[in-house]
Amino acid sequence: MSGGPVVLGDDGTRGAAMDFALAEAGRRHALLKVVHCAPLPTDLGDLVASEAVHREVLSAGQELLDRTAQLIEQRRAQVDVEYVLSDLAPTQHLLEESGTAQLLVTGIDDIPWYDRLFGGAVASYLATHAECPLVTVPKHLDDGRRHEGVVVALDGTSDARPLLSFAFEVAQGWGTTLHAVRMVSVGAVPDVVESARANLSEVLAGWGESYPDVRVEQEVVVAEPSDACIAATRRAELVLVGRSGRHRIRRPTAAGLVRHATCPVAVVPLDPRPAAT
């Protein structure tokens, strides 16, 4: 793989997201850019204008970033790392990073860091706005029960090529099975299910020539997309979903999945990245 850096939104917990980003940067032979955002609080009234408060917030952020750097150095990974301390809101800075990154990695939205600093659901926001693939990683992972490899969820309504390209590359790099799941709404008649099965085979046709070492399993699931994807996170190493909408149309499946998943989730934009100006 080639392209920009792997960007980690450093939340101070130094959990599974850090290890995931470090491993992906190494696998992709990419720079790992570790970003910690230390914006000024918005609810301190006149104190916001104080230079002393500004320095204190940035100093605390630098200490956190330094501790992350120490842990990464202890991993002894063969990866070049750049550390960035920003005083922008995390949603703003990480969204800007997504314009040049090949991958953005964050934790999930239910950890204290987001409530304390972000004031909102950052991972869910990035899932519906980021210009590059986003992977959200739960703080703790139980790998012992994961047996379905990489699961890619398809709905048959969008051009799946960017999503499948990302899925096949990950499955090949990880040396694991790619489980392609076609979603069909509850209550679908048998003819619709059969049509979905044929559509899935058609969508996957030809990919095996480019990725001959990737074992592919196909399945049609009759369930609500969000329910099926959340259930898949209990069994998979990684679940991938696509996000379409040139005007940042909110996709409830993608946004909800990153809040409730129990394994890493990749949200892949299906629209072309805007051209640089």
TrEMBL record:
Origin, by domain of life? Bacteria
Entry-linked InterPro entries: Rossmann-like_a/b/a_fold, UspA
- Pfam families according to UniProt: Usp
Domain spans labelled UspA: 10-138, 150-269
What is stated as this protein's family in its record? Belongs to the universal stress protein A family.
Stated name of the protein: UspA domain-containing protein
